[in-house]
Amino acid sequence: MGARRDFIKKTTVAAIGMGLPGSINAMTAKSYNNILGANDRIHVALQGLGRRYGAYIPSIAAKQNNVRLNYLCDVRGSQLEKAAQHVSEQISYNPKQEKDIRKILEDKDVDAIFMATPDHWHTPGACMAMETGKHVYLEKPCSHNPHENEIVVAFQKKYDKVVQMGNQQRSSPQSIEIINDIHNGIIGKAYKAIAFYTNGRGEVPIPVQTAPPEDLDWELFQGPAPRKAYAHDTWDYNWHWYGWDYGTAEMGNNATHELDIARWALDVKYPEYVDVIAGKHQFVNDGWEMYDTMEATYAFADDKIIQWDGSSRNGYSKYGRGRGTLIYGSEGSVMVDRDGYELYDLKGELIKENKSGGNEGGTALGGGGDLSTRHAVNFFDAIRGKEALTSHIEVGAISQMLTHYANIAYRIDKGFNVDGNTGRIFDREAMELWKRTYEPGWEPKL
Q1: Do 8 and 128 fall into the same domain?
Q2: Are strands 190-198 and 304-311 parallel, antiparallel or unpaired?
């Protein structure tokens, strides 16, 4: 067992490439079998048992993936119990339950962590996991701020772990196909992408300071964030909208996905200028503290542009669907979403489409489905050296920067210039929001 553990924990990104589809040949099945053995099992833990964790269970439960779920981890007892019941319906054994991820990280038998915590935990938790030799499936956003973007990539390079960012559309065969076609000129020069998201989120309570739920470890929930008193109803999904200590607003929550597709399609890196128009326009007297509507513009070199159009609490679908990315080219256009793509000529006539018929195309809370399963299986195969990651953290982090730029522009109420090569912002006021304040002892440092 010791030799097997050593192999899994030392599997490196150098062996599997940078995770760009088609960029590097994955290790062949024959060579993999000679090194590791096809029956080798990967032991995992799930951290964060809210709305997202269920998306990973099908890939973990499937016998052909040879994965064992050792731990369920959450800071609230009732969520642990609920998850244990849910998992018991799909696997034939009982994972251990633990509130403190640090105790799980001490277990040398655990190979990988699925991290589905609130945003403020993502980078610190991933760095802790890598330090203890674990591979990480890191949900979006992969970072809470630009500084964490740099740190999580630096940790991955230092500890040589497999780190998959949870932007699962990167594993869509239809998205991979059409973006390869775009790069090969199917719509001529791709010059503009509109990424969009529409939802009908409702009113949220005005926070009232109170005692936390009895089964919630409020200290652990805060983790890397500065300590403050609990307020109702910031627990559960609402932490997204109450200030910047825990969440990253709708940008980090959902724009991550579509902006990643837009950047991938246009084959660009960092923008040279960012500006936003944003505000809170629905339920104006409720407890929601961020914008609920945002239009962001990113100007890139070579006259390329990405626009974000997000409405969190007005459900009118002006693009005919709840989410997706529209890509314009000199010779046509493409609409791509989680269900596939539609290719149009310059007259706007449909000339080709490829739909997956999958079950992960909407905007329902939590999500999960065929793309999440594909993405998790890719993570397992990358750990074993059989495939390249479809969303290597270094690639995902670049897309994540687009969300951070927009949030910063909103918070300082002005646009700014960016170094298109390094991603650094040419504005002192904006750079003051490059990183956040941590609870003493929690800041990840190399």
Answers
A1: yes
A2: parallel
